[in-house]
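Q: Given only this backbone (273 positions), what sequence would you predict?
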């Protein structure tokens, strides 16, 4: 009875997953293949005329290659932000896990607060304006790093707790300093979690719409092109869905290729911690 129940429950879960994720993606692909007149009907049907190349060219050439510029901006933002998140969160997690002080409970409270308390947009803009980083790529990178630290610190800390302290002590006895212990000994052991953090945070930053809209209004990112296309081509759903398809492909490819590493990184820290 239990086996039959689990079978039907799993089947139902797969069906719901297909409805929630596969069907909308299929609708995006089909609409991006249609002509403007047929796409405006917003019907879930196979196109009578394939206009994929024409739609692709129109989207890329629109507004002086805005989509190309947006991809460049999003790539720079994603690479720089993820690099900062990985290094800083791993170092913070290492210190919190290895050095027990009276400040640890307070620091843990601040880390958890980063997951619970919603971002304050207006004060953040005021701070960025005060240090002359508002509407700059560096300012947005710092914002993305700050917002991504809490989740990453928790992942790294859970995995670092599984690494024996004897490894640190042996390196210190051999004359290694704190930075050398971390970068030469500890960080290579964190590869499963590093891959997990890189993929999860890269998708998060690449797909971010709110932060670039508020903190980098002068430079487009890929998600902001959706807003711009929708305002320029109010009835050209073929171009809008082609744009959605183009900016969906990179995160989708990352998840397909690194799916096992993501699961391994999360479960290893959770099970062993």
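A: Predicted residues:
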């Amino acid at each position: 009875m239990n086996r039959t129940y689990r079978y039907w429950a799993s089947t139902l879960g797969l069906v719901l997953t297909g409805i929630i994720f596969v069907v909308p993606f299929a609708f995006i692909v089909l609409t991006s293949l249609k002509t403007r007149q047929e796409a405006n009907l917003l019907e879930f049907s196979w196109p009578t005329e394939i206009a994929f190349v024409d739609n692709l060219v129109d989207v890329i050439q629109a507004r002086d290659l805005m989509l190309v510029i947006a991809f460049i901006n999003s790539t720079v933002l994603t690479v720089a932000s993820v690099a900062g998140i990985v290094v800083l969160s791993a170092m913070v997690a290492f210190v919190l896990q290895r050095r027990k002080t009276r400040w640890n409970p307070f620091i843990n409270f601040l880390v958890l607060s980063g997951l619970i308390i919603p971002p304050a947009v207006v004060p953040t803009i005021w701070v960025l304006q005060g240090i002359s980083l508002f509407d700059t790529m560096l300012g947005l990178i710092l914002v993305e790093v700050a917002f991504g630290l809490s989740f990453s610190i928790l992942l790294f800390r859970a995995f670092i707790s599984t690494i024996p302290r004897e490894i640190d002590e042996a390196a210190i006895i051999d004359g290694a300093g704190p930075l050398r212990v971390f970068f030469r000994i500890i960080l290579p052991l964190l590869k499963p979690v590093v891959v997990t953090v890189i993929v999860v945070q890269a998708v998060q930053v690449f797909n971010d719409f709110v932060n670039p809209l508020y903190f980098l209004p002068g430079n487009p990112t890929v998600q902001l092109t959706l807003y711009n296309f929708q305002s320029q081509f109010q009835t050209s759903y073929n171009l809008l869905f082609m744009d959605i398809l183009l900016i969906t492909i990179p995160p989708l490819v990352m998840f397909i290729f690194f799916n096992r590493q993501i699961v391994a990184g999360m479960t290893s820290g959770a099970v062993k911690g």
